[in-house]
Each structure stands twice: as structure tokens, then as C-alpha cells.
Design brief:
This protein is α/β, with parallel strands linked by helices and 116 residues long. The chain contains five helices and five strands, in the order βαβαβαβααβ. Helix 1 crosses helix 4.
């Protein structure tokens, strides 16, 4: 079973649309009616939905690291720096991750893009 993604508010719409065109299950914070939620709440919501959070927000890295240090479980975070990778590169790397990883493999982890 492939992973489902939860897109943070700051993720460009082109990434979400590109993933959907590839048949990937994606839900945005906005579509979930959670716009304006704090970063800790966004990570918690992704975990409740059993989706991996994709973000380009540095603050979420700090929150995920805190959870790791405290031993608090979360569904996982995939992070890409806003200037670190093209839209197409993000789509390709995310497609690869969701096709080969399981939710259990991603749990409590932070993965960084680009994969190379």
C-alpha cells in the first residue's frame, strides 16, 4: 500500500497537482479545513490521518526534532527547502518515496529532499 501525503499550507499548488496527476493520494491543510493551524497542530493532524506531512517550512523540522527527543510518535515528515529543489524534482522524489516506503518506515522520521 502506498503512502498518503498531507501537504502543509506553504507547499506550492503545482506540487500537489503534479502528485495527483500521478495517482498519489494527497490532502492539503486547506482542503482539510485546517488553514491557519499552528505547526504542531499540523503535524498532529497528519498523524491522526495516518499521512506523511510534506513541508517546506523550517519550523516543522524543529518540532519534529523535539518530538524525536521527547519520544513522542508522529507519522513522519518529508522536508524540502524552498530553494533546494525544483517543483518537478519534488514531485519525482515524493513519488518515489510514496511508492517504496510504508507508514511504519516513515514513522518518527524526517526525510530530506532532494534524495540524491
Amino acid at each position: 500500500m502506498s503512502l498518503s501525503l498531507y501537504m502543509d499550507e506553504n507547499v506550492p499548488r503545482q506540487i500537489t497537482m503534479g502528485l495527483r496527476l500521478r495517482g498519489i493520494d494527497v490532502l492539503t491543510v486547506q482542503e482539510d479545513g485546517r488553514s491557519g493551524m499552528s505547526d504542531p497542530q499540523v503535524l498532529e493532524r497528519a498523524s491522526q490521518l495516518q499521512r506523511i506531512l510534506f513541508s517546506r517550512d523550517d519550523d516543522l523540522l524543529v518540532i519534529a526534532h523535539q518530538k524525536q527527543q521527547e519520544g513522542v510518535s508522529f507519522s513522519g515528515v518529508i522536508y524540502s527547502h524552498p530553494q533546494g529543489q525544483s517543483i518537478g524534482g519534488c514531485i519525482s522524489d515524493l513519488e518515489l518515496i510514496v511508492s517504496v516506503c510504508t507508514l511504519n518506515e516513515c514513522r518518527d522520521c524526517v526525510q530530506y529532499l532532494p534524495l540524491k
